[in-house]
Design the sequence.
């Protein structure tokens, strides 16, 4: 066996180990279905909507917040305009004029986290929610969050179950499967008390959390990740509300997707470096022992597997060309024999199949948790496309992190 | 920390690896069994042809020539052996044994073909190809490709390929009878003098003018790497 293949076996072992670990976690504690009960109390809530040139989606985002099942006197919607140059201001001001719940703020452009901090400082509510201006909350989303907060007074922050908003294109369909997989593993991270990120679309915080650890910091354009790391560092509890749905607009083009994921991946690398003391540190539980190390290993394993596949593909292509040149055999399609004898039945093939099957099981569970129905086309898009596109942002993120270059927001 | 979960996950992952290894090994065993069965079948075919030949004793060439001696199973065996060699390794004892049996069958088929051809005045086009895959013959893989392609283009072409390094007395005798000098790859075309070294497709077509007498086809029939 060549060393390259040995590396692939190691990647497969780690991937399988992680999937098995999460499935064990699932079997130990299965997610409970949505209940019809109402919360006992309705705390005051400020939904912070940072926006920068979001004229296309801001209206719908505010509408989704206005439609939330929640006492109107307990919910304020703070639209914080981070120096938009488009029609965002006009739209948001119109809503503010028509709905007393909506408050519009304008500030100099300083980045999303500065808009969030502005909101935190200008609100007095007990709970603070963030909502990206390209995302829309389900009508009962906030109620589900409140119920989750009520279930354990220790909880300091909650992440929702994120879905892709009306996926149509192949890239969006691919992401809809990926997000469904995400719903599964985020719930399992919750089981393990190791939720690793508080995403922009509809994460909620207790004000006490900011009082304990401070507000958002400039952190490699992934402030939502840094704050999760910081909360773990201070022993604050983050959970996942799998019944609180939020729909987010996924990047429609390859370029936009790579840009977004490069920012996420590079942010993970750079935040990992900043919080490196948490790695393999049992003091931080499964977050330090499993989630962080696996995330980093998965990052490099992804690059390795992609490089190995690409190298083999190019190597056999060049070799075939050289062989044809040397032998003077005209180019022809190699013979395909439709017999079991000629199928690739190596150990690696079976392991790849096992890993894929377990991923599919995880996606199916994710779909069940979030009541998402994925089409066959979505599955096909994910299986055929994800492995091809992911290496682009992994490599770009690594390059950016090595050069310590700030990744772009858009 | 619940370390138990870490250990359980580790053991389950190891078990999955073990299962994958076991399944792959069982399928390889099945492949070997499949090759053995095919060899038995070819062996019976050859024995039957030999017996038929002896029974008819050159009286009915029509019957004999209507039954091609080099059965399609022998060709198919070659490509199967190639897969087995890739999966299990060229030094695997079982692969070597299968190759020895295959070589014996080839020699028997070759001898029978020569006898039939002489008595029935047939003019088969055949190549005895000697190769090595132990690393001392870098051109053998290329030569194998050329022969595979030729055999695909001319299904009537008989290619008998032999691993020069097999420790098989019948093969050693064949090598000494053909006066081979040890240089590889070596080709003997229609009982002519041995040709040494790599020959490209163009060169082979020049070296075997008899190919024109064979019916060319675009239908692929078999592929071999070394066999």
Sequence:
């Amino acid at each position: 066996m060549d060393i390259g293949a040995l590396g692939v076996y190691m990647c497969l072992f780690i991937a399988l180990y992680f999937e098995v670990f999460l499935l064990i976690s699932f079997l130990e504690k299965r997610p409970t279905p949505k209940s019809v009960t109402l919360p006992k109390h309705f705390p005051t809530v400020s939904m912070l909507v940072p926006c920068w040139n979001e004229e296309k989606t801001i209206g719908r985002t505010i509408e989704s917040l206005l439609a939330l099942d929640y006492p109107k006197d307990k919910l304020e919607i703070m639209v914080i305009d981070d120096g938009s140059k488009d029609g965002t201001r006009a739209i948001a001001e119109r809503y503010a004029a028509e709905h007393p719940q909506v408050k519009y703020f304008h500030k100099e452009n300083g980045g999303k986290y500065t808009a969030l901090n502005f909101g935190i400082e200008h609100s007095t509510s007990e709970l603070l929610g963030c909502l990206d201006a390209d995302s829309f909350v389900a009508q009962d989303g906030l109620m589900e969050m409140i119920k989750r907060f009520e279930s354990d007074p220790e909880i300091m922050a909650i992440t929702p179950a994120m879905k892709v908003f009306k996926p149509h294109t192949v890239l969006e369909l691919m992401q809809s499967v990926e997000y469904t997989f995400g719903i599964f593993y985020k719930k399992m991270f919750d089981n393990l008390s190791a939720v690793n990120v508080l995403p922009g679309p509809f994460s909620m915080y207790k004000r006490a959390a900011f009082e304990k650890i401070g507000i958002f910091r400039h952190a490699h354009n992934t402030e939502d990740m840094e704050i999760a790391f910081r909360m773990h560092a201070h022993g604050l509890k983050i959970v996942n509300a799998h019944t609180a749905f939020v729909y987010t607009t996924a990047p429609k083009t390859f370029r936009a997707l790579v840009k977004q994921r490069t920012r996420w991946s590079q942010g993970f690398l750079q935040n990992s470096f900043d919080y490196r003391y948490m790695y393999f540190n049992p003091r931080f539980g499964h977050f330090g022992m499993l989630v962080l190390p696996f995330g980093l290993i998965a990052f490099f394993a992804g690059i390795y597997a992609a490089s190995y596949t690409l190298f083999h593909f190019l190597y056999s292509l060049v070799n075939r060309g050289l062989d044809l040149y040397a032998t003077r055999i005209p180019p022809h399609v190699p013979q395909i024999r439709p017999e079991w004898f000629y199928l690739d039945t190596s150990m690696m093939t079976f392991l790849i199949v096992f890993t894929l099957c377990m991923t599919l099981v995880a996606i199916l569970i994710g779909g069940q948790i979030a009541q998402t129905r994925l089409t066959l086309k979505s599955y096909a898009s994910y299986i055929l496309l994800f492995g091809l596109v992911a290496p682009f942002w992994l490599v770009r993120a690594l390059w950016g992190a090595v050069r310590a270059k700030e990744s772009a927001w858009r | 920390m619940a370390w138990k979960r870490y250990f359980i996950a580790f053991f389950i992952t190891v078990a999955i690896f073990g299962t994958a290894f076991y399944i792959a090994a069982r399928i390889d065993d099945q492949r070997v069994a499949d090759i053995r069965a095919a060899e038995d079948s070819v062996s019976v075919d050859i024995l039957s042809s030999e017996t038929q030949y002896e029974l008819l004793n050159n009286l009915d060439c029509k019957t004999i020539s209507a039954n091609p001696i080099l059965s399609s199973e022998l060709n198919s065996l070659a490509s199967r052996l190639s897969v087995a060699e890739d999966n299990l390794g060229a030094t695997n004892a079982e692969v070597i044994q299968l190759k020895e049996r295959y070589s014996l069958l080839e020699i028997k088929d070759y001898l029978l073909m020569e006898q039939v051809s002489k008595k029935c005045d047939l003019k088969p086009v055949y190549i005895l190809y000697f190769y090595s895959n132990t690393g001392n013959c870098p051109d053998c893989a290329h030569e194998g490709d050329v022969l595979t392609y030729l055999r695909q283009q001319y299904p009537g072409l008989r290619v008998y390929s032999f691993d020069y390094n097999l420790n098989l007395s019948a093969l050693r005798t064949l090598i000494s009878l053909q006066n081979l000098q040890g240089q590889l790859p070596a080709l003997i075309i229609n009982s002519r003098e041995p040709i040494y070294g790599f020959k490209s497709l163009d060169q082979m077509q020049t070296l075997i003018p008899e190919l024109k007498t064979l019916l060319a086809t675009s239908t692929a029939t078999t592929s071999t790497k070394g066999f």
Observations:
- Strands of chain B lie at 126-131, 158-163, 186-189, 195-196.
- The longest strand of chain B covers residues 126-131.
- The CA atoms of residues 192 and 209 of chain B lie 13 Å apart.
- The radius of gyration of chain B is 21 Å.
